[in-house]
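Thread: quick sanity check before group meeting

JM: Hey all, I'm pulling together slides for Thursday and realized we never actually wrote out the predicted structure for the chain we discussed last week. Dropping the sequence here so it's in one place. If anyone has concerns about the input, flag it before I start.
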Amino acid sequence: MLNRRGLALLLASLSGALGAAGKDFDFDTLKARARQQAAAAYSPPPQVDAALAQIDPARQAAALLKPRYAPWSMASRFVPLPLAPRADCAPTLFNSIQASGIERFDYRPELFDWPAAGLPAPGPAATGFCGFRLLYPSPSDGEREDLAQFQGDAWQLVGSGSPFGAAALAVGVIDEDGRVQAAPFREFWLVRPAAGARQLRLYALADAPALTAAFQVDLVPGVAGRADVQVALYPRDGAGKLLLAPLAGSFVQGEHRPGRALPLQAEVHNVDGLAIHTAAGGWLWRPLDNPPQRSAYSFLVNTPRGFGLLQRDRDAGHYEPDAPHPRQPDVWLLPGADWGAGQLRLLEAPAGNADERNVQVGFVPDQQLAPGAGMEFGYSVQWSTEPSLPRPDGWVIATRSGAAGSDGRRRYAVDFVGPALRGLPPGAAPVAVIDIGRGGGLQRQQVVANPHTGGWRLLFEFDRATDAPLQLRAYLQHADQPLTETWDYVDPPR
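JM (edit): ok, ran it. Output follows.
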């Protein structure tokens, strides 16, 4: 498991070990281009063929690259496959860096199986691709399977055998309306690995009205798919509030927020909570929400040890029978160096289906950049369904809430599990520490063993004396020592 010091050493060593880009192109080359591009007026991406706008994006995804046109041999360990242009995706350029130099792989309509997407051959005109997929041999049978996907303003990896789930965004800017405007990728350069190599380096350029960003990304397959990232940002005039290293997921409904958007379905989410590992070593868990209007919350955690969007509920019986959600991976981000003073910002927006990434979280530095200034930082991101990611010795697996009578009283049930709770002395029970924010009054609390989970359930009720959102926090302890992470939630106005 990587810690911050280990990540810093890894990023430094990879700069030399993966320097296959040669003398013609490296991260310094890309940073110089990004700096120059940010100094010029923003140029929006070209429009795609109007015919694409008439086709549902899900059908467009069926137009796959014909294998004979793949930029690298389909027998390669890593196989990149550019994705067909789409109406909702800024066109991107694709380059391959090989021993002979840089080779541009240009879009041509005949590269794709357009009839599968409902379009007649030869297909639409376009100036680029909608990103790319990256295939890698399965550890079980050697067949090629998805490892990574870069598309639009987002990118994601998988752990061994898992489907895609939560994503990382290139870089975000929070506008005056509280929306995250993520910079879309505009061009990629993939370094062709040597035979037998087990990691791949790529470079990427993202561009938006507010800024230009250069990326160096080293992809490492495994049980936890990992990306080691270096970023250089260059703002333009009028850049808003930066959201660094943003992660994004979908939460439509869950145990504590049932059935409002999709009343005939069970739980619908590819992540169900935000986990934060603070610089002081503490842990915090915030269940996610699908609010009726946009909401934003700040966590004052200078230089966090890590944070992530997790899918803790993996009980297949809680989802529709064919839903991928129980197998979708957690995504965990480890800052690579001192990010300085700032806060984690969680933004949630209304969503009606699982295709909407209505949850974003990222780091907002106190020191925002002025035009002409630059910023460089690094981090590592991991995707996994296995318990290989960092976590505390006691954690939350479920949150439920409801009315406690007809007088406006609220009731919550929070389930905790973990080795710290299993290790209690015989006959001992944990004690709850609960904080109800200003405008609320705790009325009842109880901690009971839960034989179904092997952990403990906290039950509590409180009265409201305010119509404002109410901050709630709770954890379990024994002998004045915390046993679990801190459960953190905002009870919305009723």
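AS: nice. Helices lie at 4-17, 27-39, 57-60, 419-422. DSSP finds four helices and 32 strands in the chain.
JM: adding both to the slides.
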